[in-house]
Amino acid sequence: MYRDPVESLEPLHHRHAAIRTLRVGMIGIGTVGSGTFRVLARNRADIAARAGRSIELVMVAARNLERAAGVVGDSVALTADAMQVATHPDVDVVVEVAGGTGPARDWVLAAIAHGKHVVTANKALLAVYGAEIFAAAREKGVIVAYEGAVAVSIPIIKALREGLAANRIEWVAGIINGTTNFILSKMRDEGLDFAAALAQAQALGYAEADPSFDIEGIDAAHKLTLLAANAFGMPLRFADAQVEGITALQGVDVACAEQMGYRIKLLGVARRQAAGVELRVQPVLVPATHLMAQVSGSMNAVMVKSDAAGLTMYYGAGAGSEQTASAVIADLVDVARLDGVHAAQHVPHLGVHAHATNALAVLPRAAVHTSHYLRVPVHAVNQIQAVAASLAEQKVPVRQVALAAERPGTGPQVLVLTGPVEQGTLDLAVHALQARAEVAGAVTTLRVESLEG
Predict the structure, then answer these.
(1) Measured between alpha carbons, how far is residue 233 from residues 63, 103, 160, 255, 300 in Å?
(2) CATH code of the domain occupying 5-152+323-345
């Protein structure tokens, strides 16, 4: 029977009117929290239209209540007790943006125990306690969403779960720490050494007073752990990741990489192999013509290789108040849409098959198979062939050999690009090379990533 479209709008209108506001409690009102409040307020109508219901911040927990009042005004209830937000009956979803691990774990688990959904941008929390948190969420049938914990403004979790849902993911590689990418960009563009580039990053607010979390690769490893879990359906394996930062990287290697047609980036790589998964963060050489090499400053980028879609790349800001807020609110929109849906349909719930038994092993360092860059100090320029011969004797395929451009205060340097070889084999070859009389100092090695299909 035909029904007039105008008549059909009335019950639809009432049905939407009956959907109550999603009430949000937030723990933390710092950089990310204040950005979330501003974006929610500024784009309230658009967000409600996309979510199918209003999303309202009703309660905030903060250490400094006076400062918090200056951000949110008198429209939001304030408390110094984060657990009150986590357990309050008038809160539907808890946004945890305070950071840290211990107290945050307690707040998140309490919220889940009280049947509340959770949105967090806390990658350290999930990398360390994610298995426990996701298991509790599954038990209670609630959502734990964390887009803002991985690549800030880049919706990479949604891309892996939804956009690439039809695909078998082969590898994920990304520049996923803005601080280190800024430092490496300065080392390349201005010829700075690491210490000078770090000082500039700190002066501009890109690096903390204690930058170790970023420059040692730990932050990137937390994010890579979440990416790998989503890509391969494996448990969170942060403790098994190989993590190397950029603190030992020398300006001479940045310049030599350029000479060889490469740029150095701190890359997180998760690659599926027959024997397990590579899970590693380290400075690597990327071809200078590759899109990933063009990612400069504090920007982030993630590349995914999958069987059906092929190579896809995602680019965006790697830091920022409202940039992170964008991801947090996107998760809130998902929660608003999925609240009341059967738990099995909670797309942002877990992103890993924690119920599955196919726990992929993480490959040990010695088994990782890549090409390599070597910088070998020698006593004389005519010793270049001795270096190549030594590597060939140790079954290391040599693809390119050159002398480094002369630099003040340094002797001759032999640069080598190898073909793909297991790390264990290369380590033995470098040990043998180091013992040769021609070698005048420590041999530097870095991995090379082609990032090809």
Answers:
(1) 37, 28, 11, 39, 23
(2) 3.40.50.720
Tokens in use for 238?
């942060």
Catalytic residue among 123, 223, 265, 305: 223
Domain ranges within the chain, ordered by starting residue: 5-152+323-345, 164-318, 365-448
pLDDT of the chain, 453 residues: tens digit per residue = 222 333 333 333 334 445 789 999 999 999 999 999 999 999 999 999 999 999 999 999 999 999 999 999 888 999 999 999 999 999 999 999 998 888 999 999 999 999 999 999 999 999 999 999 999 998 999 999 999 999 888 999 999 999 999 999 999 999 999 999 999 999 999 999 999 999 999 998 888 889 999 999 999 999 999 999 999 988 899 999 999 999 999 999 999 999 999 999 999 999 999 899 999 999 999 999 999 999 999 999 999 999 999 999 999 998 788 999 999 999 999 999 987 776 666 655 554 444 444 567 999 999 999 999 999 999 999 999 999 999 999 999 999 999 999 888 788 999 999 999 999 999 999 999 999 999 999 999 999 999 986
CATH architecture of 365-448: 2-Layer Sandwich (3.30)
Residue 186 a catalytic site member: no
Beta-strand (E) ranges in 245-289?
A: 262-273, 276-287
Enter the pTM of the model: 0.90
Q: Do domains 164-318 and 365-448 have the same CATH topology?
A: no
**Range 164-318 has CATH code 3.30.360.10:** yes
d(CA 281, CA 36): 30
Buried/exposed code over 142-157 (b: 16+ C-beta within 10 A; e: otherwise):
bbbbbbbbbbbbbbbb
